[in-house]
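Notes from the 1:1 (GR / supervisor)

We went over the backlog. Supervisor wanted to see one worked example end to end before approving the batch request, so GR pasted a single chain during the call. The sequence is below; no edits were made to it. Supervisor asked that the structure be written out right there so they could see what the output format looks like.
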Amino acid sequence: SELDSLPRGELAVDLPLESLQLPLQALVALRALGRLGILLGFLKPMLQLGDRLLKIVAVAVHPTTSINNRHLGTDRDDGEELLDIYGRMYAMPKEERRTRIPELGKMVGLEGRGRDRIAKYSKGMQQRIGIAQALLNDPELVILDEPSIGLDPVGMVEVRDLVSGVVKTGKTVFFSSHLLSEVQQICDHVTVMNKGVALFSGTLEEISTQVQTSRRLIVELEKASDAAFEALKALPYAKTTASGNLYTLHLNTRQDVRAEISRALTTAGGVIVGMREEGGGLEDAFLTLVGKGPGQ
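Structure output shown during the call:
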């Protein structure tokens, strides 16, 4: 197949995005892991459109694609029964199902809970059994539709670790999320798309340095100072606004200018009690590229 012919770390997907004729703003993140597979994340801009794209990917990319199912069995089914149903749908032999299902239960952290009814599963357990279902037929491409939705912070971390573990087995994982921070934590290569057009593709470091975003440095002084304000306004690489003893510098440089700013304020008699940087990250880069950034 076409997917089989691709070197690890690359995934070619030709989707008819323009034909959807819908406003599409999506961030796709790709984590290249050499021979260990890749992890592709999709930040869903709109629920219905995102789900539609996932279905297109599932059908068009590869015949062994598997997607986690949100609607898990009935109140009478237990976890192992659900997986057995899917195993029969995949035409897996009985002996293979008998060995594969317990293995997956252990892998996703449901060892010893396979005979519990799904109706009694917590949200986290439902997400885990969904991931097990997606892995049941040992697919080359696994699509996980918001695997951490509805989970508490601990559950979200556990699912992220589980997804990373799946990638290390050599599989390609495509996961969707509304949370850009979740994509940023697990991926290191990003492609930004808008209305079906790829606007940028590169590493997280490249997008932060190549896309001009609004970097802001917030400086807190011990007390407001006109002299300090004038010193900041004289800096050629920043436009400064003041609110009491807080000064916001809108930077137009990628250089680390904190030491220079500190010297300027000290010379002007200001006493710095805090300094922090905002903006310039993946979120600002994404908004800038799709035309939603500050001043656009």
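Supervisor's comment: The first helix runs from residue 2 to 5.
Batch request approved.
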